[in-house]
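Internal tracking record. Fields below are filled automatically when a chain is submitted to the structure queue. Please do not edit lines marked as system-generated. If the sequence contains nonstandard residues, flag them in the REMARKS field before resubmitting.
Queue: standard
Priority: normal
Entity type: single polypeptide chain
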Amino acid sequence: MPMNSETLVKAPSLKVLKGTATSYHYSNQIPLSIWVRTASRILKHANSYASKDVQDQAFVLYTRFIDLFAYNLYRHPDLVRAKSDYQANKKTNEAKIYREYVQLRSKLPQLMEEAEKLGSALKLRYNEYQEKLKREETTPDRQRLIAAESRRPEPQLKSGRVFSDIELSRKLERLSDTSQSSVSGKRVSQLKYPEVPSTKSFEVAISGHENSIQVAPVASPLTHPAINSTEGRSPLRTIFLPSELINNFLDIASHNTQQGMETCGLLCGKLNRNAFFVTYLVIPEQTSTPNTCSTKNEEHLFDVIDQLDLFILGWIHTHPTQSCFLSSVDLHTQNSYQIMLNEAVAVVCSPGERFSKKLGIFRLTDPPGIATITSCGKSGFHPHPEKNLYVECYRISKENAKSGHVVIKKGLPYHLKDLR
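SYSTEM-GENERATED OUTPUT FOLLOWS
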């Protein structure tokens, strides 16, 4: 009996999933504070996947969290200073970073158990998938499926990584800090997820933007397939961005724009049916200049995002005196979001009349962008002679779906949270 390849759900092996989990780019050049924040978001995302029974993604992120603490963060040069500050004065920023590091690290034993349970379930699913393949006759459908699988590169485990209970237990013993007590994480309420209205087509209406982006309708299956990927073939789930949010942000930024000053905001949202939906535009406290925009009081900002139980899906900012592109400072800012979430994007608006391109949606390439920026220890504006560090990633049309993983869609509900 011929096999219908569409009815046979592919199941990745644990080797592939573990390789994906360890294929992030780590560097001590990135401050410990950012890595701790990243680890917190990784865990939050993993818990979200687990609650929705998305087992493979939950396993990948739990394993990444464990790997980050067991093999990397314990040797970060900032950790010694942070611990010393904590012992001297528990109210300093460095002390707060160390306290959060210890709180997150204390979750490792529980997360190892959870990852082991998920691994067992995923291994069973993979074995069942392989058995179904073996039972099927050699048909053209199966041959195409096998050929497609063989062409897909497998993520490689980093050298020295051995995911055995014994080794990780020893790691935990060495990393344990008996002077610190674990603190349970905050429980946040689930927000009701908005229904997505169906539309035939729309234009992004941006004041002064003559070349509006035409976007075709997007189907609403039970699960949105990840049809886009990075340069290294890692899947990118679709992000749905309300077109009205962009106009709203430009209105908010208009005063700064008239003064030639930048304005920034965070794009936050929910995961639903294997796709991300931007449901909040968060305007943080910020300091603006003609070429930069820096957030202030970030602890409060991330507390608000955690209380709302949101993913950080990217950021949006204006270039009142420049065209649409990512500066070297923007590249480093984008990197800090993209190492938290692969799909995170940077939206750049250039409302000035002299700029023909009014809107750009970008992500760092992977490779080479993320690795290049992660390993760069420079700050401020500086040249990056490397090519192809970032690309545009908005979806041009339904017919050209692989042009990008960001769909700008009219009529999607969203909320504004202005913290200024």
